[in-house]
Task: structure prediction
Amino acid sequence: MSAHATGRVRALLIGIDRYLGAPRLMGCVNDVEHVSAFLNQRLGSRLDERRLINGEATKDAIVEAIRSHLGQVGRGEVALLWFSGHGSEQAVAPEQWHLEPTGMSQSLVCHDSRDGDVLDLTDKELSVLLDGLADRDGHVVVVLDCCHSGSGTRESQATIRSAPAVTTLSSSARRPPEPRALTASSSTSHVALSACRSDQLAAEQVIDGEFRGVFTAALLEAMRHLGADATYRELLVGARSRIEGIRRAQTPVLFPAHRDGPADQAFLGGSLVKSSGMTARWIGDGWLVDAGHCHGMPVPALEEPVLLAVAGRAGLVLRVVEVRAGESAVEPLGWEPDPAEQYPVVLSRTPLPAAQVVVGGTVEDDPAACARVVEAIRTSAYLTAARQEDPKIGPRMRVAAVRREGRKVLRVLRSDDTPVVPDVEGHSDRSARLVVAQMAHVARWTQIKELANPWSALTGAVHLEIVAARPGVVSAPREEPPLSVNDDGAISLTYRRTADGWAPPEVFVRLRNTSPRRLWCVLLNLTDRYRSHAMLFPGGFVAPMGVAAAAEGHRIPVVLPPGHAIKPGAASTDWCKLIVSDREVNSAALELPALGERIARGLRPQTATASLGWNSVRDMTVPDPAGDWTTFLLPVVTRVPQE
Result:
């Protein structure tokens, strides 16, 4: 099938909050609503959607809908299955022992699963159903926002989408309609994006005022930001980046992950409508821009307006008045547009949201210490304090003022209770200022990491390539194939044992411009010590259809950072952030020292958009002319292997 499908997209959206035999969830139906809104906005009349919500999503109904609704897919069309609900495990039948070395298969928990003799829908059953659709020459996609684990854990600030494992099979258990055929296929003719690894838990929590699946929310945001041509592999990395700020122990995965397979096709086979940028037009009683909530348009506040500049025409500015589902109302500032003309516009000023921080809220917390932290947060431009009981807040960080082993400490935690920064000793004013400074540093680093331009025409123009440095090769080869990413969207590098001890891996890094335009590139390295630096490629133009080498083409050793012992099992992650623009970008404004280190003299970090032409100060100044820019993010995991 063509990499760019243009036919109908047949979508089956399943959201189950209420179960007959499993704990209740709260965000799955909301997931379906958001996915439906996105697809309708991007596909219009080409979308043929069917939903199964709560009691409608029985096992028989799901199997029937896959066959009857998705089963209509034909050449040039797409079948999409999106499931939000509980995931679990169940014991495999004795005759299927060879398919699962653990003796357990992953499963989707249907509305009536575990009620009487109804079993879950196993991954093997689902795989064969989907591969049967692909045999009709359609493009088949499945998105699973559920756990692939047997644990029923609940964590603070989040609900886990997991039901207890079924470890025994009843002799009277109802089998799927085609039990033998449903276990015979190992085909990879469909592509799947899953919320987490098989040994991990997928969470839902309050996001933008309502319960949502963390994976679904992150994936939709990545789709909006990366555009219609984004591949499954690129979307996986985008979603992983956003999830890591909330949960460390949830890594989305892609299947199959091999290079040049379905993972490198555009999402939905390229069926989404590619945005050509935003356009302002007159509709009789006001001005509209063709971008709204579904496109990621930021919501303006009275003191923080969202401004749009007319591309290439200095001083022509519009202010966003109201953001709707697929469009936004705007008004001109200080000029009168011609109603007969349509104006191409770009974002000129957008408020970057401050990181939400919940302070205290448990019986263990010291109220006086919490009050000091809240007061210190009020002085930060990067943070805002939130009440734990506020249902509209989905905090990125939580501060606990507690005692540990007889010592007073301030702890900064993610929503899954993993630490963000080291504990700060004491409950004093000085301790409060220090912990707030650390959180502000993390918030600035996160802004840089998540920086994206959803309407850029430059998306995909420059490729970031990491090439293994072979022995004896001293400068970057121009055409040697780059390393492939894993099923979790990351490049994996490994230390090797030598006679002198552990030797770090070495690589070359290339930037390949695939466009006919000369483009400015900056390559940032974001480390797990919350450092951001541009030493590898601080900025420069890459020729049309040209190739540039980072570090002037030298071999680049990739070492574990200071504080990481070089021993078996040790690992660290670097995020390579490529920024591409049609004009020069000041990389110094995007650099940060490691957490706890002093900033270099003369270096003053700004908000992330300031150096990219998005004016972040509180005035009406706009760039002249407004430029275009895009970003690309690639995680690199370096490990010392187990001996």
